[in-house]
Amino acid sequence: MKTLAGLIKNCDVKKYQGDLDVKVSSVCFDSRNVQEGTLYVAQRGTQVDGHQFISKAIRSGATCVVCETMPQTIYDNVTYVLVENTARALGQIASLFYDEPSKELKLVGVTGTNGKTSIVTLLYKMFNKLGYKVGLLSTIANYVGEKEHKATHTTPDAVQLNVLLRDMVNEGCEYCFMEVSSHALVQHRVAGVHFIGGIFTNLTHDHLDYHETFKSYLTAKKSFFDKLPKDSFALTNIDDRNGEVMLQNTKAKQYAYAAKSLGDFNVKILERHFDTTLMEFNGTEVWTQFIGDFNAYNLLAVYATACLLDIPEQSTLVALSTLEPVAGRLDTYVSGSGITAVVDYAHTPDALENVLKTLKGIVDDGQIITVVGAGGNRDKTKRPKMARIACEYSNRVILTSDNPRNEQPESIIEDMFNGVPEEQKLATLCVTNRREAIKMAALLAVKGDLILIAGKGHETYQEVEDKRNYFNDKEEIKQILN
Ligand SMILES: CC(=O)N[C@H]1[C@@H](OP(=O)(O)OP(=O)(O)OC[C@H]2O[C@@H](n3ccc(=O)[nH]c3=O)[C@H](O)[C@@H]2O)O[C@H](CO)[C@@H](O)[C@@H]1O[C@H](C)C(=O)N[C@@H](C)C(=O)N[C@H](CCC(=O)O)C(=O)O
Ligand SMILES: Nc1ncnc2c1ncn2[C@@H]1O[C@H](COP(=O)(O)OP(=O)(O)OP(=O)(O)O)[C@@H](O)[C@H]1O
Ligand SMILES: N[C@H](CCC[C@H](N)C(=O)O)C(=O)O
Ligand SMILES: [Mg+2]
To answer: Which cofactors (predicted)?
Structure first.
């Protein structure tokens, strides 16, 4: 068993009290999961302060505590370690507790507002095709080789993250591709983790409920690149206005990818079709099974990463041409009656605009009917913007519920409705029940029309008051159209 002294060696220890040679049986940040011999790390959260559970953790068996301030009640047989930031310490400790698995993998992290899941999933699929054993940590699912593990977060907490990485090493994985969310960066979930590369996709409006200002959202994303080591690569989208800013203070080797400017890695869109696009990657033409100009950026990031990981270019390009779209991202179904339905995870204004622009290019003379909602207990300021964009690019909009969580669904819809332009208010429908909203769209559609169901993509549930009820946009629309 490891000793406390060994586990805190990378932490910024301000002070300690008690025996540092105490053996640690597990590392835990939730008093409810503490066992005999646990090291409890008290974190300040958004709801409560973990410091208030220190006594409870000790009563459950914790023999050492990492905290930012000393508790009032001190137990003689417990060791207390005071650090500046316990969330950061948790990452550093968890990494050491699991013998630094990230150092035994080639781990690449992807951050940005949109495109993270798409890029990591495509990298995972591509490297599988190339014959490697790979790990994946994403919003949709986590994979240790071929074995699926349910994902609860886009980026797992520091302990779970290191458990999964260790599992990958033990199973013989050579690479791991993971999403690094802005929440994870602020909460130091990846502290102590060694990355061989970092990718930036783009930065647009999201999560301002949590980060409060766009500036601090940007700072959170940038902190990922600030901390990348010298021997890693930092790959950024320089067509995004913040692409260069991201790399301002990085020690990593810098690379740029672009479609509009000139980068180290470039893509050109040569032909757009209903379900395929001819693209050119650094001068070589490839037919891809993707639509949407934003997907050219995602594929370019995949291509560039493979090049930076020394995969032969020819193998990369062949694999690129065989990749298929990711579940819930422009997931298309054409009914027998000639109506096209598209399920997409667009849950930000920018994603919705990109998707609708793409769909406008493929509908010919048909109408676009958009069914969209916004998540409860999440950024409220994006709601009217999403509704306005839906109205701007669609012939008909049906506002509905996404995951209402603990909010009143009607009030979320009302926030969205406030963004509908005056002249479109009469024609915009509000149908709280998502199933009924989808039915309504199907009723309104005729041959040649396109129905976009946005916001939930791959999700197979609807979260209402802390309960997840089964719900699947793709299944719903298929059933209704049949
Ligand atoms: C806002 C947010 O990110 N919250 C995460 C955070 O919880 P929190 O800060 O609210 O924690 P808290 O409830 O205040 O508790 C504070 C501390 O006291 C501890 N505690 C609490 C109660 C108790 O009895 N005993 C105890 O020890 C808690 O374990 C915690 O360490 O830390 C928890 C433990 O790691 C996470 O589960 C939780 O994710 C919640 C469920 C969540 O919904 N997070 C979302 C917003 C999120 O993280 N999303 C991003 C994706 C965003 C994107 O799309 O880009 C993600 O990476 O998934
Ligand atoms: N490169 C991109 N630029 C802009 N929009 C994109 C891009 N890639 C995907 N999208 C849009 O954003 C949606 C979400 O994509 P994806 O799941 O890949 O992003 P994400 O960054 O993982 O999101 P989350 O923060 O929820 O994990 C897609 O359904 C699509 O509408
Ligand atoms: N990762 C995103 C997912 C949003 C998906 C949308 N369906 C919602 O519930 O708001 C978030 O946590 O904000
Ligand atoms: Mg994601």
So the answer is: Mg(2+)
Short-list 239, 248, 259, 177, CA closest to 218: 248
Cβ(135)–Cβ(105) below 8 Å: yes
Q: Are 39 and 7 in contact (CB under 8 A)?
A: yes
| 402 annotated binding-site participant | yes
Ligand 2 mean position, distance from CA 203 (Å) = 11
Span 419-478, pLDDT tens digits: 999 999 999 999 999 999 999 999 999 999 999 999 999 999 999 999 999 999 999 999
The closest ligand to the CA of 376 turns out to be 3
- The reply to whether ipTM tops 0.90 is yes
Whether residue 455 is annotated as binding a ligand: the answer is yes
Strand order in the sheet with 265-272: 147-149, 142-144, 134-137, 175-179, 106-111, 197-200, 233-237, 253-258, 265-272, 277-281, 284-288
Q: How far is CA 88 from CA 10, 56, 184, 217, 369, in A?
A: 10, 22, 11, 18, 46
Which pLDDT score, from 0 to 100, does residue 472 have? 98
Domain boundary among 40, 69, 97: 97
- Residue whose Cα lies nearest atom 13 of ligand 1: it is 47
Taking the CA of residue 26 as centre, how many other CA atoms within 13 Å lie in the half-sphere pointing to its CB?
16
Burial class (CB in 10 A: 0-12, 13-18, 19+), 372: buried
Q: What is the mean pLDDT of residues 124-149?
A: 98
Residues 83 and 124 in one domain: no
Q: CATH number of the domain that 173 lies in?
A: 3.40.1190.10
Query: What pLDDT, in 10s, does the model give residues 364-390?
Result: 899 999 999 999 999 999 999 999 999
Q: What is the CA radius of gyration of the chain?
A: 24
CATH code of 89's domain: 3.40.1390.10
Domain boundary among 287, 322, 357: 322
Any ligand 2 atom below 6 A from CB of 389: no
Cβ(29)–Cβ(157) below 8 Å: yes
Same domain, 297 and 376: no
What are the φ and ψ backbone dihedral angles of 343, each rounded to 5 degrees?
-105, 125
Write the burial class of residue 250 (CB in 10 Å: 0-12 exposed, 13-18 middle, 19+ buried).
buried
**Structural domains in the chain (count):** 3
Question: How many Cβ atoms are within 10 Å of 43's Cβ, its own excluded?
Answer: 23
| Shared domain check, 432 and 339 | yes
Domain that holds residue 48: 2-97
Is pTM, for the whole model, over 0.90? yes
